[in-house]
């Protein structure tokens, strides 16, 4: 696991200066073990590396045997042994010992189709010096991030984190009003947007090519959603899911550094632990968090599962006073507003894990794959005659409600946004088949939006902030491809979610763990905001800087903030994290868009 950064100027010009070393220094937490930069007159590739596989002989950048293909990789390629054998059988010699070393030779053999052969999580940059081509690629589910920009200097700059990308000169750092509007609804900025006008996220399963002809990209993979397993006996489906999940866990156990398991005591992480335990009979560390509020505290359940599988278990209790300190760290590592309070819990879990191990297995991803969210049931119950995008928008928007946003917005800011009512999900639903089941279409939208932009971003940033590599067996693309062929109603009915996964889990876990009521990783936000954090929330949102930010009418914002209660918790947290980001941002000054209070555009980078 690493942080990568680079720049390219392939339109006939020559690169004069770049900020690759500075960008990699910003991401030292992602790669504390070693760093390196390769460059020629046109391209620079840099990496800050966390050594996990190939502790010796596995340094990056990596090259093919001819030295003409150079590559930096963030992630892990789980089938690298099989790929090395395949390439050597075809007469190619792989240089180096790490998993990343197979990629340049794989490209030399298969060209742009090399990504189809990779099993793992990755974001990579590959430069073909002979053909003058730079390739950027992300893994199928979007586990590893990659930000990019076409700065005023021409060419392309890229980095694993947004803060690092903003180190490159010429990146437009003005705030994007549409990104802010989406953030206020969804609590995240969905790809390809970032909060900055001049920066973009490379979506999951995307290959971008930069050469003398320009910049182009395409999606190289999509899950099937074809219901082709309709009529297959359920026991056969359960057996297949079992076998695929066992293989996914086994593939993620290779490590030359200590490995542990994140454990909430719920179904998903407990099942991953059970399958890992079969192959790891020695000392195995597990990690969980808890709260004083009983409704959110899972320590007892986690300790019971840890005891059942004889692990060395560690836990930590999160206090309300932790929230402000950690929220600032969350925003620093995200590089843009992000308002999922569960990131506080994730931060503490990875902070704890980082004191003992370098790699962890997690149960993340199963809710999106196996119909685990309650909102899927609410979507099906909300069939009130509205079309599907509007119905899903009504159950998915849980930041600032649309009517509250419209009341708060200043007229000048509102002029930068699409005319209301506007549903940002509609274009995503247009890419799904209108002949598919409504639930499957919603899950397909989630696969390209919610999973990567809301969930996987949290896992990546919170883990890498503590130099910990997270691995998610539930998101093995081979497992995902199979599960997407299962009719949605087999996974979700009016009484039970994740039916297929529960049937698999029953083979390995105590009955009480399988039957336990689903509990998402969450924090007691309502209690914190209405008690402990209220003074800080009020002080932050009603500060002079906030009131002059230009988004909201000052009097209306003041009225909303002074009168909020527990039912407004997510709206208040979303507003709070936006203002906290502004106050801590290194790249922007507010206001930063046309029509702000000053009537000026201030998009220059800070000195």
Number of helices: 27
Helix fraction, binned, reads 25-40%
Give the mean pLDDT. 92
Strand content: 5-15%
Short description:
This protein is α+β, with helices and mostly antiparallel strands. The protein has 27 helices and 17 strands. The strands form three sheets. Strands 2-3-1-9-8-10 form a six-stranded antiparallel β-sheet. Strands 4-5-6-7-11-12 form a six-stranded antiparallel β-sheet. It has a five-stranded parallel β-sheet with strand order 15-14-13-16-17, with helices on both faces.
Descriptive notes:
With 607 residues, the chain is of the alpha+beta class. It folds into 3 domains: 2-219, 4-Layer Sandwich (Glutamine Phosphoribosylpyrophosphate, subunit 1, domain 1), CATH 3.60.20.10; 234-370 and 447-515, 3-Layer(aba) Sandwich (Rossmann fold); 527-584, no CATH class. Helices cover 39% and strands 15% of the residues. It contains 27 helices and 17 strands. The strands form 3 sheets. Strands 2-3-1-9-8-10 form a 6-stranded antiparallel sheet. Helix 2 (80-89) packs across helix 3 (102-110) and helix 17 packs parallel to helix 18.
Task: Provide key terms for this protein.
six-stranded antiparallel beta sheet, 3 domains, 607 residues, Glutamine Phosphoribosylpyrophosphate, subunit 1, domain 1, globular, Rossmann fold, alpha+beta, 27 helices
What are the SSEs and their pairings?
Blueprint: E1 2-8, H1 20-26, E2 34-39, E3 43-49, E4 62-63, E5 69-77, H2 80-89, H3 102-110, E6 120-128, E7 133-138, E8 147-149, E9 156-159, H4 162-165, H5 177-186, E10 200-201, E11 206-211, E12 214-219, H6 234-251, E13 259-262, H7 267-279, E14 285-290, H8 299-308, E15 312-317, H9 322-334, H10 342-353, E16 359-361, H11 366-369, H12 374-381, H13 388-396, H14 402-408, H15 411-414, H16 426-430, H17 438-448, H18 450-464, E17 469-471, H19 477-483, H20 488-491, H21 499-505, H22 511-515, H23 525-530, H24 534-541, H25 544-547, H26 554-562, H27 569-584
Parallel strand pairs: 13-14, 13-16, 14-15, 16-17
Antiparallel strand pairs: 1-3, 1-9, 2-3, 4-5, 5-6, 6-7, 7-11, 8-9, 8-10, 11-12
């Amino acid at each position: 696991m690493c942080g990568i950064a680079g720049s390219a100027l392939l339109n006939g010009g020559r690169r004069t200066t770049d900020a690759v070393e500075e960008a990699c220094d910003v991401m030292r937490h992602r790669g504390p073990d070693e760093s390196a930069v390769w460059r020629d007159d046109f391209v620079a590739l840099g990496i800050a590396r966390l050594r996990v596989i190939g502790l010796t002989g596995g340094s990056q950048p990596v090259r093919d045997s001819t030295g003409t293909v150079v590559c930096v990789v963030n992630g892990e390629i789980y089938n690298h042994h099989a790929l090395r054998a395949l390439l050597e059988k075809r007469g190619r010699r792989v240089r180096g010992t790490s998993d990343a070393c197979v990629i340049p030779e794989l490209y030399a053999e298969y060209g742009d189709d090399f990504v189809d052969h990779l099993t793992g999580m990755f974001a990579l940059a590959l430069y073909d010096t002979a053909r003058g081509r730079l390739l950027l690629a992300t893994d199928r589910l979007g586990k590893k991030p990659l930000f990019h920009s076409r700065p005023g200097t021409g060419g392309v700059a890229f980095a694993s984190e947004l803060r690092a990308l903003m180190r490159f000169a010429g990146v437009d750092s003005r705030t994007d009003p549409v990104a802010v509007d989406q953030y206020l609804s969804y609590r995240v900025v969905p790809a390809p947007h970032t909060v900055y006008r001049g920066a973009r996220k490379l979506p999951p399963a995307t290959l971008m090519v930069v050469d003398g002809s320009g910049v182009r990209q395409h999606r190289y993979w999509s899950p099937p959603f074809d219901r082709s397993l309709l009529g297959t006996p359920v026991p056969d489906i359960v057996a297949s899911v079992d076998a695929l999940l066992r293989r996914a866990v086994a593939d993620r156990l290779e490590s030359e550094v200590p490995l542990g398991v994140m454990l909430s005591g719920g179904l998903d992480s407990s099942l991953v632990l059970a399958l890992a335990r079969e192959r790891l009979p020695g000392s195995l560390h597990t990690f969980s968090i808890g709260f004083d509020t009983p409704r959110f505290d899972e320590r007892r359940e986690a300790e019971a599962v840890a005891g059942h599988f004889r692990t060395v278990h560690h836990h930590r209790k999160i206090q309300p006073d932790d929230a402000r300190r950690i929220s600032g760290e969350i925003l620093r590592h995200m590089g843009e507003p992000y308002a999922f309070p569960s990131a506080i819990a994730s931060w503490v879990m990875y902070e704890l894990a980082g004191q003992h191990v370098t790699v962890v297995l997690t149960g993340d991803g199963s809710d999106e794959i196996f119909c685990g969210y309650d909102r899927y049931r609410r979507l099906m119950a909300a069939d009130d005659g509205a079309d599907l995008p509007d119905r899903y928008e009504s159950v998915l928007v849980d930041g600032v409600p649309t009517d509250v946003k419209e009341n708060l917005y200043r007229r000048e800011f509102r002029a930068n946004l699409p005319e209301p009512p506007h549903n940002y999900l509609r274009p995503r639903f247009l890419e799904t088949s209108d002949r598919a089941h409504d639930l499957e279409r919603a899950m397909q939208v989630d696969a390209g939006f919610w999973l990567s932009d809301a969930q996987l971003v949290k896992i990546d940033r919170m883990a890498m902030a503590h130099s910990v590599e997270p691995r998610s067996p539930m998101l093995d693309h081979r497992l995902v491809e199979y599960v997407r062929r299962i009719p949605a109603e087999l996974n979700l009915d009016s009484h039970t979610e994740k039916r297929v996964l529960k049937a698999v889990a029953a083979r390995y876990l105590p009955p009480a763990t399988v039957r336990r009521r689903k509990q998402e990783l969450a924090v007691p936000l309502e209690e914190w905001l209405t008690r402990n954090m209220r003074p800080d929330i009020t002080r932050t949102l009603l500060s002079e800087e906030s009131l002059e930010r230009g988004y909201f009418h000052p009097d209306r914002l003041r009225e909303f903030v002074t009168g909020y209660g527990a039912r407004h918790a997510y709206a208040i947290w979303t507003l709070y994290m936006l203002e906290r980001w502004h106050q801590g941002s290194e790249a922007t000054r507010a206001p930063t868009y046309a029509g702000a209070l000053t009537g000026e555009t201030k998009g220059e980078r800070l000195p």
